[in-house]
Design brief:
The complex is a heterodimer of chains A (86) and B (148). Chain A has helices at residues 34-42, 49-59, 64-80, and strands at residues 2-3, 7-12, 15-20, 30-32, 84-85. Chain A is α+β, with helices and mostly antiparallel strands and 86 residues long. Classes of the chains: A alpha+beta (86), B alpha+beta (148). The interface between A and B is medium-sized, with 12 and 17 residues.
Chain lengths: 86, 148
């Protein structure tokens, strides 16, 4: 999976902002914390949910099941707005 | 769902993408982002400022002020041919404070941007005349090609 090309990611001051371009069906704005920012950064390249969880484990000091749950939640939200190409 | 005006009022700033070509070469659709700060009460803007305003019923336009009149502003997109008149203070939601190009944040206070703005304002007439001429030439060429 990968971040859809019709979305632009910008990270500023620890906050991730995901903005749709004019070609995206979604017309809102997604703001997130470091966790979402890290997930989005990883989605810039082709990856899998498992690879994201593994990468997140090295960055965040939290139990794997919590990380896996947060990653799933983030991906579900991104899928809903069409921001992820499977 | 929160619209752009509500979001800007709540958050104070908005980073978003543009649609269309009206602010080329500054903002490229699908590639660049811009940041707008919400207007403060009673704030007035100057020639050269890029402002976000709402055009009824629900279009949001980000264009540059080219003339300030007592009760309104005259706007023009950097890549546009026609001036927009009758834009009142109450129509304006905020002013652009920066833009993000290729992932790099730029402020409107940077010298390069200020030079760009000065050039855009200074060359308005010649730019528009040049674009109109190009349009005319394209139309003539198209007609000639059409005749085969």
């Amino acid at each position: 999976m990968k971040l859809n090309k019709d979305f632009i990611l910008h990270v500023s001051g620890g906050e991730a902002v995901l903005v749709p371009t004019g070609n995206a069906k979604f017309s809102g704005i997604v703001r997130g914390n470091k966790t979402l920012g890290a997930v989005l950064e990883l989605l810039k390249e082709e990856t899998t949910e498992e690879q994201i969880v593994t990468a997140m484990k090295t960055r965040f000091d939290a139990p794997e099941e919590i990380i896996a749950r947060d990653v799933k939640k983030a991906l579900d939200g991104l899928r809903k707005i069409g921001a992820v190409d499977e | 769902m929160t619209n752009i005006a509500e979001y800007l009022a709540e958050q104070g700033t908005l980073t978003y993408s543009n649609v269309g070509t009206s602010m080329l070469p500054l903002l490229r659709q699908g590639r660049d982002l811009f940041t707008v700060r919400a207007k403060t009460p009673g704030e007035r803007f100057e020639v050269g400022d890029v402002v976000l305003y709402k055009r009824p019923p629900d279009r949001y336009i980000l264009h540059r002020i080219v003339e300030v009149l007592p009760d309104e502003y005259v706007l023009l997109g950097d890549n546009c041919l026609g001036r927009e008149t009758g834009i009142r203070d109450e129509d304006i939601l905020g002013v652009m404070t920066g833009y993000i190009r290729d992932g790099v944040e730029h402020s409107v206070t940077e010298k390069a941007y200020r030079d760009y703005t000065a050039r855009i304002l200074r060359t308005e007439k010649s730019r528009i005349a040049g674009k109109k001429l190009m349009r005319k030439i394209k139309r003539i060429v198209k007609r000639m090609v059409g005749r085969g």
